[in-house]
Amino acid sequence: MIEKLYLPQTLVLEGETLLGEQDLYLFNEGSHCRLYRKLGAHPCTRNGVSGTHFAVWAPAAEQVSVIGDFNGWTKGKHRLHPRGCSGIWSGFFPGIGPGVAYKYHIVSHYNGYQVDKSDPFAFYQEVPPRTASIVWDLDYHWRDRAWMQQRHQRNSLSAPMSIYEVHLGSWMRLAEENNRFLTYRELAPRLADYVQRMGFTHVEFLPLTEHPFYGSWGYQTTGYFAPTSRYGTPQDFMYLIDYLHQRGIGVLLDWVPSHFPSDEHGLGFFDGTHLYEHANPQLGYHPDWNSLIFNYDRHEVRAFLLSSALFWLDHYHIDGLRVDAVASMLYLDYSRKAGEWVPNIYGGNENLGAIYFLRRLNEEVYRNYPDVQTIAEESTAWAGVSRPTYAGGLGFGLKWDMGWMHDTLRYLAHDPIYRQYHHNELLFRMVYAFSENFVLSLSHDEVVHGKGSLLAKMPGDEWQKFANLRLLYGYMFGQPGKKLLFMGGEWGQGPEWDHEAGLAWGQLEHPLHAGVQQWVADLNRLYRTEPALHDLDCDARGFAWIDCNDAASSIISFIRKGAFTSEVILVVCNFTPVLRTHYPVGVPFGGFWKEVLNSDAPPYGGSGVGNCGGLVAAATPCHGQPYSLTLTVPPLAVLFFKGTPPEAPVAPSRLLGQ
To answer: Which of 285, 416, 544, 657 could make a disulfide contact with 281, Cβ separation 3.0–4.6 Å?
Structure first.
């Protein structure tokens, strides 16, 4: 299915057939979604002569030439020719093949402006701080057929999805080699082993599209079709993805269509005009990130971005795109004061061009790849982000639940003695929990810029900090929604994340850190193996409160149900350091309720208080339920119980109607 989409690596051209009239028309119309096959540098043969075909969009150019290693970077020697009124310049030059560095020298019609630009469609770039593009082919023999054939099951909304978010350059460093980061190929077995042992289902990489400033973590993209060369070649990156797939691990990629840097070699002021960005800085400049904003109203810009999104799915087998900073795209007044933004044609603050683009993006992705997911980082209450476009939504598959993250971290930052007065911060999520298909995310953004690590946010002494962190993770995995945890959080790394250093792996020699790591691994195991915890992650039928009103004790309890199982998971969270004995909790049926996880168990660093493996429910009504358990609830802990009705298993159709 995928192979038929690939561009042949040895093209045979007759005239300019690589770039036909239909391509030009669709490009100018904004409907060409695989421009990377046509624009950029493509090794090929023409009339039996090997060389490279170049094509670039520069409608305001007076002259465009290719400069590079092959001509001593001589401007004007290898000139491209305009293709009608399309704004595209193209040409074939013999003797140029893979591995050759090049740029486009553009002479603008305006004010004699001249500039050397990297290729917006380059498949490979020089290692920063060098900025030239490199002629490259994308030939690779994939070995992940088994994964590709069944990934629709792994990416389904009813499947367990526990995402390990990774910044590739700082996950692990080699101290003995001057603190260098790992290459794509070096990382593959190490990361796969670790992720598999921890039980995560997917890895999400912070942007690996080429970026000049390492400190941007990839969010200042210049190469929308090139994986960063810091860690190896495109084939090396393919190998990493291929290896993870062979180990049963999905790969998500952060993708940034919201803004781009103003570096001279990049997209900004490309042909002496504001080609990719708006000319008006109130529309085209982003004050938060000192970057430029795409002009989504321009057809060719939409085609460029759509082609980039499909490129990573076509050629790199990416299993999903996490789209960055969607809120900044949707609102014209995002991070702007009154008078600093331009309303749309109806006088509103909605960016109509961006809305159209996002809908089109999701339609094209799911039309071509119904077995992947698009995930929106959208921090407002915009309605229908993860609802179909035919129903008026933006069409994403999932959305980060930023509200849950802020409310929960704010609640846990309170000293436990005061949490009873902030009980609603725990409860508010369930007012909107099923309005979108949510991912509960504890991402990199929460552990940088002086915010401290997740562990550092927890109040109390050392034991209480770790207990609070285990409680946070248990509460997260008990809640409906997919899960995401940034690297280092899975063992409670002490210092906040530093992109210039590797994770503090040595902390795992400390029993409390090792205990958190084991706790997260066991949470992943439970989440993956119990359908009640993932079947209905995005469906209100999978959740029911038992008791959410005990603010005085700061205890909540709820149950999770699956779509096709009669088994139920009961979750009980105690957000105070007070041991609660003889604590009644209602349950929907009798029989034995097995205590399947307890964050206070000694292997996790807890005090060892529990319920001896489980209890038999008494026929004593409580919390509106016909039966109840009388529990010992450990301090700052979460308990998971598994209950199975003593009668015959419930038929799926009956359960679905509950």
So the answer is: 285
pTM for the structure as a whole: 0.94
- The domain in which residue 124 lies consists of 3-134
For residues 477 and 522, the answer to whether their CB atoms sit within 8 Å is no
Give the catalytic positions in this structure: 324, 377
- Between CA 405 and CA 28 the distance in angstroms is 42
Question: What span, in angstroms and rounded, lies between the C-alpha atoms of 104 and 392?
Answer: 42
Longest dimension (CA), the chain: 90
Which one, of 530, 436, 547, 545, lies nearest residue 481 by Cα? 436
Residues forming beta bridges with residue 543, ordered by sequence position: 560
Query: What tens digit of pLDDT does each residue of 460-511 get?
Result: 999 999 999 999 999 999 999 999 999 999 999 999 999 999 999 999 999 9
Nearest in space to 316 (alpha carbons), one of 212, 220, 244:
244
Q: Show the tokens assigned to 160.
A: 């367990």
Cβ atoms of residues 191 and 503 within 8 Å: no
Count of structural domains, the chain: 3
549: number of Cβ within 10 Å: 11
CA distance 404 to 330: 21
CATH code, domain carrying 243: 3.20.20.80
Residue type, 194: Y
DSSP string, 213-276: -GGGTT-S-SEEEEE-GGG--HHHHHHHHHHHHHTT-EEEEEE--S-B---TTSSTTTTSS-SS
Chain position carrying tokens 């190896």: 232
303 lies in the same domain as 215: yes
Place of tokens 């030239």: 132
SS3 467: helix
Query: Residue 650: which residues within 8 A CB-CB, separation 6 or more?
Result: 566
